[in-house]
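ping. complex inputs:
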Amino acid sequence: MMMNLKSAKTGGILVLCAVIAILPAFLSNAFQYEIAILIGFNAIVCIGLNLLIGYGGQISLGHGAFVGLGAYGSAILTMNQGWDPLLSMVIAAIFTGILAFVIARPILKLKGHYLAMATLGMGIIISIVINTEDQLTGGPDGMYVDGLSFMATQIYWYWLVGALLVFSVWASLNLIHSPIGRALRAVHGSEVAAEVVGVDTTQYKVLIFVVSAVFASIVGSFGVYYSNFVTPDIAGFFHSIELVVMVVFGGMASTFGAVIGAAILTTLPQFLTFLHDYEHLVFGLILMLTMIFLPKGLVPSIAGLLKKGDK
Amino acid sequence: MTLLKVNNLSIEFGGVRAIDDLSFTINSGTIHSIIGPNGAGKTTLFNLITGVYTPTSGTILYDDEGVTGFKSYELAARGMSRTFQNLQIFFNMTAIENVMVGAHLHLNRGFLASFFGLPSIKAGDRHCRETCLELLDFVGLKKYADIDTESMPYGALKRLEIARALASKPKILLLDEPAAGLNPAESREIDKVIKKVAERGITVVLVEHDMKMVMEISDHILVLDYGRKLTEGTALEVRNNPDVIAAYLGG
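pong. complex structure:
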């Protein structure tokens, strides 16, 4: 079983590498590359968010705001201050991490609906600040940002995001199969039982909130260098919800589930465009039916079915 | 030697005194039972000792250190662990993982080392898995090691909680109704496990309704009624105390 776990981890990463390596053979234009890169970005945020929601059992309806902080942090530091883009990204990530740390303690004392409300409020506040501080952020019109000089073409971006995604999956799996990861899952399982064997539950909730926020911030920064443009929508409520839906759809407490959830929900709308006015209707219907018939999300449900088939 | 000393402990819930001016001591290396009718405050007392509740007044001295108001995880670091009357299993993990969480304090918990999957973390986990397998064996659950806890029988889960608590290497272990809901055969198994735990030199504090078990294994018994101490003493002394008989039979 220990061996199985190990091989499942390496096997999963190998499959992911293979998909990333082979995919360009099927991508014929810039738009398709764009979608592939977008999938990568979303998947990395979802991997971080899944550590918080799926493993730690804490909901966040404000993670779009952390993506926004990374994006605007980078944009402002490079464009207004003339800083190096990579340095700006690191500073933005540190700032986001500190902000997440400061708000985590009061917020994570709350549970269930209250935690959802608090993170929702946090996201909305950050979003409002970005919208109204127009001298700094350009307000609702958004902001132009220079790209990374060494990322000459879209293909470069494809490989960079691919590498980041593989790294994120690997690191996330490492974390889950470590004492920290078990403590985190224990917090989800039973806080009181975790405490009596020495797990400082608050500390772990704060830790994973900060980690997931930093994941989001870094993706926000890369995203803005890639697209050369950022608007406040990135920090908005709908983006936050979209991210949570990806995690839940792919399967909570499954790192590969987060990747697959992000992949499907980023691509699906593109396939539904032919439906015109009915696009959103069908999209919602697909989500509903999946959650009704596969309530644990895609990956865990399918893995469960395969396990049953083995016996 | 005194391991735990409780002085004039009280807790109120909206005017109701669940524990009322209670004082007693627990000596190390003994099996100490707490009995009393339903609602006497036994579980509340456990929650006070283990830091789940903060007392309204009174003090708790553990290992010559004032620990009143300490959090559960701070007490765990000082060698105190417990099980729960209502199962508190990590149902999102396998049996062995549940026990491995118990060993949390004795493992390398560095964030970056874990994030980058350094060999020290993996070696620590391998070693931890072995010792936790021994603990599962100790409580008779070795065959369940890699089973999802969701599909384990109730009696096994009761013992899993004991294995998890033991993994934290406690000096004192508080067991809240370990035999509740078990059939006689399972109950005897638990009985054996508790004796073996005590033989390891761990001080056991037991809340239990199974009087046969309590009378048989306890070195010392504390009887609670309405949050107060009714009496305490050896099994023989308690059994023959008219107040105890009255409290139980409503005389």
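Chain B has a mean pLDDT of 92.
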